[in-house]
Hints:
33 strands; six-stranded antiparallel β-sheet; mainly beta
Amino acid sequence: MTKKNTPMWILLAGCVTLCATVPATFAQGPIRVQTNQVLVPVYVFDKEQDRLLWRDPSNLARAVSEGNIQLEEDIEEGLVIHDLTAADFQVFEDGKEQAIQYVAYEKSLYWDFRDNRGYHSEYIGAGGGKWSTSEWPSGLVGDVHVTHYLIAYVPPDSPEGSCHQIRVKVNRRNAIVEARREYCNTKHSASDPLNGTEFGKRMDGVLALPGDKKVDFTLLAFALFTEKDPSRVHIALDWPSKSLGRHSMTVGVLGILLKKDGSLATRFSDLYEHNSTNQDSNGVHWDDILTRYETQFNLPPGDYDLRAVLSDGTRFGRAEIPLTVDAYDRKELAISAVTLCKKIQDASAYSSPTRAKLPGTWTAKMPGNYALLVSNDMEFEPTGNTRFKNGETLYTYFEVYEPSLGGQSPATIQIQVRIVDLRTGEVKSDSQPISATPYLKEGSPVIPIGRGIDISKLPNGSYRLDVQASDSTGKSTAWRTANFTIE
């Protein structure tokens, strides 16, 4: 479930001038152990089509430079050998051939995006969370991402924690076959792939005994509404691009939520792995420089302590914050926590039939239980780094719950937004009531509201964003707040 590359990448100068192509290895998806199955992602390419692409990459360069997603995908798919079945594969574990249960064909869980700041890459980790890279340097474009086969077989009995060598063969001439060559028999929850691994044990130790913070990151957690109990909690980690080792091949995140009495409520972990050799002039594969991680899960109302560790395998960082999941009456108007965002990106292809506003979008529902924070076809990415620069736009995301929206005579909803100077208490801006009608989702009592707020005229200092919702029956929610700094 990790990213993968064709045997080439493209370096563009200006808009369409092809400067150089260099070979790269595939960054194969990891072999996974699920219940009594081993799942092996396998990439099978046609050697002749790959040679032709090397000879004339101009169409691919044009597709990427123009943001022509369909043409890019058509070129990518032209490399793949299609219509293979289980009869075309052989899988060997420790030299012994295994009986294949089934072969599936699936799309890469990896995408390139354009957001309000530029281009970056995102992919779904083994634990179901979403990893994001830094913005690409000017003049660079993303890797080519292709579909792969997923081979499933029942492994022989082996001791817990033992590791095994894998080899995959395909009975097609001129086929390029790429897959990971090793897996370890470590069983774990789908949302906690590091549990029980050596890497996970090291992170557990850092989590229990906070020490020097060698990896600097901010941590954010807030609760959102669901159609049914319990609430959905969204967690985000942000860190500077230089915080992690520039040649790290593995990055992990581990978190626990403790109840008020100190008992464990839940834990989660995720893993980013790559083995690409694509590099820029500084010896770094720019498409693998991570700066963000997000995940979600459900929690009942209560007070919690969230502790998280981020590591590149050598350096470890730890953060801890409180989290309150409020109970809410499903018969009353309610408002969620208010979060601040620096980045937004187009999600129209994901959330509606309208045409994409920007090239690079989620084109299908994300796998698992992760739900994008989408409002009016734009995805909002909350951050714990609430220090804004002069001239930046402050974005906010929150949700309003109005039970009557599922009935015959829904109430009219309005919101009010104001900014308060924390030092003086002066209200620096106060909006007129804003109609929530443009944000409604048909048949849903939850209104996702994402907005940009102009802070360009505010001087440097510390501020508080206040948000309140009211309806046409005269009911109002309490004010929800989020602090930020302009510098």
